[in-house]
Q: What sequence folds into this?
């Protein structure tokens, strides 16, 4: 067991290092940060001085090595654009992204399960078919288009919700939250729907197909035969047994909600890490790009590691395999 | 816990208080820094002009006006300028403004760590005669020096010392990156980089307020569609720029006004005029021949570009600066007419009767509709038998490519920082040597222009200076050093009832904003 865990942790570390190496080898194709940092009247000497200070003339493995050395000491460098420590900027922006991800995850889960059950029970009903058709549209439209459509409908035409930003936020310790003000909550609605729509459709379709499967099984028929109420049969007996794959998929989707937040954040000018990353690309802000990519890969690798370890905990056969393997 | 919830309640209260005449505006770019000497770019200088002030400033029509200096005059021997400073001015922190702060700001803004050092390259020394008189001695007579320092902003020496912000920080952080202490009409109240920046009027300002604002909030909105939606929904009072394709729609939308003008930026085509061969290696470089360059200038249908791609929002350009700027050559105001037969004849004469193939480099996110303009140029040149491969790329890769000579022809926009025709001569027309001709990627070179530049820089007599500028404009047209296409438009969107002033340098001054009552 311990050997398996250690091996998986080691593999995760290797994945992280490779992601970082690939990222650094790409950075020089993103552009030259010096052009953005100096105005049009700069001299060649200014350019060379700045390149020297930033270490941009070093070959990329050297730059990567320096980055790693500093990162291990918790120092992610200074943002070229803002001139402030990257770690500080990321910490400032993280609450916005995490709150958005949490709300849209919640939205996707609750509505996805609810609609999934509904469309499974009323599989031939008009409403169920309508929902399935509309959900197809939701999946096939790109996120930024959905976002813009929502903004035009609810902000420009109806004037109900803000068109961009986070509204008023309240600082609780080092965390800025939009949950405690009316404008903050209003501002969460459209971006959460935009971000969660795809996941919601996914969960809905998954729940629906699982439910249809379960509803055909013998124990459901027996439950019906015993005269149990329809609601008890559907929710206590059927839904419960569809939840295992749903939870697995949802867990894995959590990472992509945070990563996909980039597009939603750009459309809604949502001040999270995704927007920070887009700005960093436009400005060739290498320290911010590097830290963001490492952060996202740590998150994905971490989630996968936990899932792997959970499988081992749940499934004794995996443990047996590993033991024999050694 | 009780204290925490009280603090929370207070923050909520402050956060949601609505301000009677609060003004909210948005632009695509957040100013990188609040340090007026760290970055020489329009977003930074435009924003900080509300907070900091220079010795001189520009008025609504770009004319030079007194600001922290009440008057100025050339030194007796022509070796510089004397500025008489305004008395009784205080910085936002209450300390008095004196000549010491001017000298300090000169040191700071001209240091190697500053991005504004080039403004001071003509300066030999700066001397305080008394607390309110400063002499700036230049290496040679310099008639346009006051014009070139309109964006040189004065910082308080005491404040910079106390907060350890003695030098501008370009790749790091210091106190002045996030805080500001100027003499200007607005105070910096809150600064969240990339999120929002809040200004409030300075009640102790020396000038008379022409605005009626009590608070102004700036938010960067990168996505143009979001910005337009925010303006239409009333979440934002003013956006800059309006995407060209949305201009007509905003003009018709109720509750919103479109403000059109032209920027001082001339969009032009440049040529590789030094490489012996084309980039593809397919043969000798035809652009070394003046006739080929002229053929290009005759084949590009600028009115058609303006009509279709710029949707009638831009003005054609004939030289490197737009009409109306100081030093613009009235004598050379004519553009070459569209003449496809003439262009074909010139190509045949130059030895290319069947045309040739080459590569055009172009940005796709730097100038308004830049990639579409380049596509149109490709189609227009095809009519005279030139087969153009278009390579459009983001600006963050663009300058690197141009500096590495990876082009046959390229697109460039130039806005003269001094609003004077001498500026593009120095950067675009002078032979590239040391600190001159630094943006002359094509390597255009003309001995007469190189000889005229220092004379223009030091000529005090206006008409003699203009005569030399006319001569350079004529040479550049004669040799087709560049093909100026058009002057880039400025498109701002504001809510009805708000008056703003649009200046050709695309600076946005809060002190001229008035909200409807």
A:
């Amino acid at each position: 067991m311990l050997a398996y865990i250690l091996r998986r942790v080691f593999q995760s570390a290797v994945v992280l290092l490779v992601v970082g190496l690939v990222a650094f080898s790409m950075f020089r194709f993103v552009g030259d940060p010096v052009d953005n940092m100096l105005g049009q009247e700069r001299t060649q000497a200014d350019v060379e001085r700045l390149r020297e200070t930033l270490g941009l003339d070093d070959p990329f493995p050297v730059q990567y090595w320096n980055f790693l050395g500093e990162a291990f000491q918790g120092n992610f460098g200074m943002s070229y654009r803002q001139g402030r420590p990257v770690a500080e900027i990321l910490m400032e922006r993280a609450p916005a992204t995490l709150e958005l991800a949490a709300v849209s995850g919640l939205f996707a889960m609750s509505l996805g399960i609810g609609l999934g059950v509904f469309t499974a029970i009323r599989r031939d009903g008009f409403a169920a078919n309508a929902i399935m058709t509309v959900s197809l549209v939701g999946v096939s439209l790109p996120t930024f288009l959905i976002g813009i459509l929502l903004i035009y409908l609810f902000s420009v035409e109806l004037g109900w919700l803000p068109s961009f930003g986070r509204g008023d936020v309240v600082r609780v310790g080092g965390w800025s939250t939009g949950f405690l003000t009316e404008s903050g909550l209003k501002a969460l609605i459209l971006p959460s729907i935009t971000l969660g729509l795809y996941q919601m459709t996914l969960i809905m379709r998954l729940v629906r197909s699982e439910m249809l499967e379960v509803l055909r099984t013998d124990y459901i028929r027996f439950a019906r035969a015993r005269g149990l109420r329809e609601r008890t049969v559907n929710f206590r007996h059927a839904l419960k047994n569809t939840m295992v794959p749903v939870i697995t998929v949802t867990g894995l989707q959590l990472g992509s909600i945070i990563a996909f937040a980039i597009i939603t954040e750009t459309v809604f000018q949502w001040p999270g890490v995704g927007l920070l990353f887009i700005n960093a690309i436009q400005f060739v802000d290498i320290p911010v790009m590097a830290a963001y990519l490492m952060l996202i890969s740590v998150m994905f690798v971490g989630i996968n590691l936990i899932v792997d370890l959970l499988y081992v905990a749940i499934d004794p056969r995996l443990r047996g395999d590993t033991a024999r393997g050694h | 816990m009780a204290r925490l919830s009280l603090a929370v309640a207070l923050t909520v209260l402050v956060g949601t208080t609505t301000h009677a005449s609060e003004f909210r505006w948005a632009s695509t770019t957040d100013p990188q820094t609040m340090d007026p000497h760290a970055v020489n770019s329009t977003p930074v200088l435009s924003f900080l002009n509300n907070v900091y002030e220079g010795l001189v400033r520009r008025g609504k029509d770009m004319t030079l006006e007194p600001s922290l200096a009440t008057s100025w005059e050339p030194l007796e021997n022509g070796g510089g300028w004397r500025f008489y400073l305004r008395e009784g001015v205080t910085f936002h922190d209450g300390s008095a403004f004196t000549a010491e702060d001017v000298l300090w700001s000169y040191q700071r803004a001209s240091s190697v760590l500053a991005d504004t050092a080039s403004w001071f390259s003509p300066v030999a020394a700066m001397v305080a005669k008394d607390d309110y008189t400063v002499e700036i001695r230049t290496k040679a007579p310099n008639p346009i020096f006051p014009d070139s320092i309109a964006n040189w902003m004065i910082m308080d020496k005491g404040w910079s010392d106390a907060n350890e912000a003695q030098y501008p920080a370009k790749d790091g952080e210091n106190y002045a990156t996030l805080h500001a202490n100027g003499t200007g009409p607005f105070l910096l109240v809150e600064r969240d980089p990339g999120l929002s920046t809040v200004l409030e009027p300075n009640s102790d300002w020396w000038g008379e307020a022409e605005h009626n604002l009590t608070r102004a909030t700036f938010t960067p909105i990168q996505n143009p569609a979001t910005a337009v939606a925010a303006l239409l929904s009333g979440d934002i009072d003013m956006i800059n720029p309006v995407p060209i394709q949305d201009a007509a729609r905003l003009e018709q939308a109720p509750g919103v006004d479109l403000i059109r003008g032209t920027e001082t930026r001339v969009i032009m085509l440049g040529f590789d005029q030094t490489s012996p061969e084309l980039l593809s290696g397919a043969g000798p470089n035809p652009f070394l021949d003046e006739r080929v360059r002229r053929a290009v200038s005759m084949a590009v249908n600028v009115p058609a570009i303006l009509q279709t791609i710029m949707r009638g929002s831009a003005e054609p350009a004939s030289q490197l600066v737009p009409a109306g700027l100081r030093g613009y050559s009235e004598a050379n105001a004519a553009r070459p007419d569209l003449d496809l037969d003439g262009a074909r004849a010139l190509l045949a004469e130059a030895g290319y009767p069947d045309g040739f193939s080459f590569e055009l480099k172009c940005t796709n996110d730097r100038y308004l509709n830049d990639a579409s303009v380049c596509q149109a140029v490709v189609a227009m040149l095809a009519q005279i038998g030139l087969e153009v491969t278009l390579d459009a790329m983001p600006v963050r890769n663009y300058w690197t490519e141009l500096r590495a000579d990876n082009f046959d022809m390229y697109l460039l926009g130039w806005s003269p920082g001094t609003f004077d025709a001498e500026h593009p001569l120095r950067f675009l027309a002078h032979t590239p040597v040391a600190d001159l001709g630094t943006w002359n990627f094509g390597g255009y070179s003309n001995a007469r222009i190189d000889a005229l530049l220092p004379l223009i820089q030091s000529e005090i007599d206006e008409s003699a200076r203009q005569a030399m500028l006319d001569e350079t404009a004529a040479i550049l047209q004669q040799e087709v050093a560049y093909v100026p296409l058009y002057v880039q438009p400025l498109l701002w969107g504001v809510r009805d009832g708000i008056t703003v002033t649009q200046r050709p340098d695309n600076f946005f001054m809060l002190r001229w904003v008035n909200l409807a009552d």
